[in-house]
Amino acid sequence: MSLSQVQICNISLSKIGDYTISSLTEGTKQAEYCNIHWENVRDSLLQSYAWNFATARVRLARLADIPIGYDYQYQLPNDCLKVRKVSTDGLFNGINLVDYKIEGRVLLTNEDTIYIKYTKQVSDTSYWTALFIKAFACELASLLAEPLGGAATSDKQLILNEFDAYITEARGVDFEEDNNEQEDYYSMIACRDN
After folding, report:
1. Which domain does 101 fall in, by range?
2. How many domains does the chain have?
3. 56 forms bridges with which residues in the sheet?
4. I need a labelling partner for 120 at 20 to 30 A (CA). Which of 38, 70, 74, 152 fits?
């Protein structure tokens, strides 16, 4: 499913029974409120889980300055919303545990080579999964309900319940995709041993 930002906003607006928009710059209060909340909802939902479509791996660039209390500091990528795993070899298998601390946009450590697996900011909605879009639309609708539609508390609660269902399903599907390779490996071993 590939929906534009405007289409996703219109799903949210339809959930609260409001007018849809044709552009985010059209000057209506619907477009204005969608613009106000869009980035915050996007980044908070992306940050809340290690989505496969928003996962990246990179070797960090070491900075010249030596921080107090650590041997090295590394610049985090501009699109980094949350560091998920840190490694000295890029494998992220738990063998090379790394002592580190994140301060601002830098990672501090005593290791001379650092790789991270992180959640990146994905602005292009064509990368979003269908279930992520459904959850996003509900979260946005819950924020638009009061200022635009004056929705009753019970209506807003229904939207939030719908969000909970979609986000749970989206995380479940995402988790299954992430673990298929591992499950196939164990299935292969079980078949071989029989």
Report:
1. 54-120
2. 2
3. 118
4. 70
